[in-house]
Amino acid sequence: MRDGNTERGGPPELNTLAYGLLALLSKERLSGYDMMLRIQPFWQAKHSQIYPLLAKLERLEYVRYNVYRQDDKPDKKIYAITDAGIDAIRVWIAAPTAEPASRDELLLKTYCIRLSDAPTMIRMFAERERLYRDKRALYDKMAGELREDKSESYLAHTSDQFGKFILLQKAIAVVRTNIEWCVWVRKLLGDETAGET
Amino acid sequence: MRDGNTERGGPPELNTLAYGLLALLSKERLSGYDMMLRIQPFWQAKHSQIYPLLAKLERLEYVRYNVYRQDDKPDKKIYAITDAGIDAIRVWIAAPTAEPASRDELLLKTYCIRLSDAPTMIRMFAERERLYRDKRALYDKMAGELREDKSESYLAHTSDQFGKFILLQKAIAVVRTNIEWCVWVRKLLGDETAGET
DNA sequence: ACCACCATGTAACAAGTTACATGATTAA
DNA sequence: TTAATCATGTAACTTGTTACATGGTGGT
Fold first, then answer.
1. B146: which residues sit within 8 A by CB, 6+ positions away?
2. In this complex, which protein residues place their C-beta within 7 A of any atom belonging to strand C?
3. pLDDT tens across B112-133, in order?
């Protein structure tokens, strides 16, 4: 017991990742594998965490699935959200939101960076800049696809695309800020190659 | 066994938080309680995680402590890093850096925001903006304290303050970007009070 | 030949959170 | 009087990661 307890005391306790999966399914039907890939930019999770959660959501009847046979690839379960799942999302959105948490080893290393030598520091920041530039390329590509919709319906908060659109704007703005920071730090460290694309 | 294994196979496995604590101690002597408070902006951790790690670091002789008696407050252990601890930091900095991870429930809610109503959405983003503005106030204050050093020695990467300085610049830049994003979203949602300080 | 991708799942472990425990001081 | 801050620690729990398990297809 303890799990699907709708008996008494309100809704069953789901963790944030479980709601994230419901959020994905609110737009399209997806396999567990696809959900794992799509949730990465917002919440890092491995398949080993997702599959048991989907089983739990299914027990709660927040999701349903059909098995699709594929000849070339393994069979897959395509999940769809139920009306009860949609209701659960609405309750969740209105509930207080947890503070964001970020864990970045680079920041800890940066704090005591003077213990290191300049070439090591430069390498560290150049590598991180690479990572941010790759991310920017990805987000730019996604934003480009959204902007193909000439009606600009994504600007309306009632639109299906609105959520994705404002998330992309945030992701792009933050990643730009981070790239600029990397370039600025590299210049301070005396890296003459800093600032070039 | 298994823990302080310097016997064979390289350095003992410490997690990122443990190195973060060493990073803090590389600048000043601190109690476990103070470390818990100081590490928050870079890595969220509760005291229940920190105290056992400090005991482990002490077994490895990367840190040492003295007990300070206080009349008004409880006694405390003031930790200091050892030479072996400094060496461990240097090895850690040169090693590959893990990719940053962030987990923000607001982003998941944002993805399926159209399932909610405008007042709920506006409340959500106004609350988040508040949080970012409070953070900005804190970082601005810290940056102001740093800038009291008129010699601007913090601009040199050999300076004791350099690490803190560049971290603050990043924190301020990112928080500004986030505030702008909140204001922009609130305007799109039709919130007329958006954009006022 | 080996690795990556697709696709699902479980088991073992590490990391992180909440709760239990104690106890004084100070501000609302 | 209720809560917050200082200060340390452990126990129980949840969350997240790595490893084990299986197996076909396609690229280098």
1. B154, B161, B164, B165, B168
2. A 31-34, 37, 47-48, 51-52, 54-55, 70, 73-77, 101, 103; B 15-17, 43-46, 48-49, 72-74
3. 999 999 999 999 999 999 999 9
